[in-house]
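Problem statement: downstream parser choked on a complex file, so we are re-checking the raw output for the pyridoxal-5'-phosphate run. The parser issue turned out to be on our end (a line-ending mismatch), but while we're here, posting the original submission so the record is complete.
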Amino acid sequence: MSSIIQLTRGVPAIESFPSARLAECAQAVLAQAGGVILQYGKSGGYPPLRALIASDADVDEGRVIVAPGTLQLQDFCFHALLEAGDVVYVEEPTYDRTLTLLRRRGARLVSFPLEDDGPDVDDVEARLRGGEKPVLFYIIPDFQNPSGTVASTEKRRRLAALAERYGFWIVEDVPYRKLRYRGEEPPALFDLAPNGVIQMSSYSKQIGPGLRVGYVILPESLAPKLLKYAEDTYISANHLDQAIVSEFIQRGWLAPQLAALKALYAPRLEAVLAALEADMSELGKWRKPDGGFFVGLTLDKPVSTDALLARAKEAGLILTDGRGFFASGSGDGFVRLPFCALTPEEIREGISRLAGVVRVLS
Ligand SMILES: Cc1ncc(COP(=O)(O)O)c(C=O)c1O
């Protein structure tokens, strides 16, 4: 195999998109409720989908906003909560686009290195005891992007307790939570502290990101401000896409869709872990996630990221710049390996090319 391998984007596999079923849903909702869906609608989202999400989370509908993706919702939350100079806690590494949003709001970022079972909570506690006053902690506790890490139940409990005691919000971003290929699910932070946690997720990884349908569950005190901000931003979101998702769920098609995704992705996870074991065990370390889209590789010998990306490209391998995931600006030697959109064969070849490049550089 000589074609270029893109180990860059954490996107779903194209073959996972349920296009025919979505087409049926689109036709049905337009026929049944076109007059409502094609009109301006409520800023909180298409009412039937909003109701489904609220009932699933066992909260009042007024606490839910359905919007064009979680990234937009993060921006709304950061607008509502942050002033320039406010302290925000993040994991290190973390999702690069969120770092961009936080920097855009002028947040002062404090990052906590990820351990095997989540962020270093002793360090969090020490900083809080020392008098630091974060406004929020942005965390991706399940199959974290970019590292694949899952926070342990114990750390989740400690973080929820610290948030309550020291008065900061937890923004819990869970787009990969339902993509568990094996093992037991720990409780969501939202389940541990429903009034102190802002939980968000989307259908991007479960159905298709092109739909742009995500949602947030807000504490009662924040919902009115965010609803007003959403209305002032876009009047109402795309209710056609939201109605299609709503119909898809009501027809009972989400559960088989998730089952199909797990069947497609689990062998890809196995392939990346096996390839790392075979080719990289003397060159780096990684955690073995039970789900999600990513494995995070940390090289044993630090290499220049610029050299790594350039050499990889020469070898027909496109990598993401790992430094973008580190609030502190470090990140040399970190490689995010998204495995869902590649076949097991491409994964094996990609890791083999990566090992060849790292050997030359270290
Ligand atoms: C952790 C995390 N949050 C948010 C997003 C954005 O997702 P959405 O399509 O819902 O905007 C992504 C996308 O990759 C992600 O990995």
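For whoever reads this later: The first strand starts at residue 5 and ends at 7.
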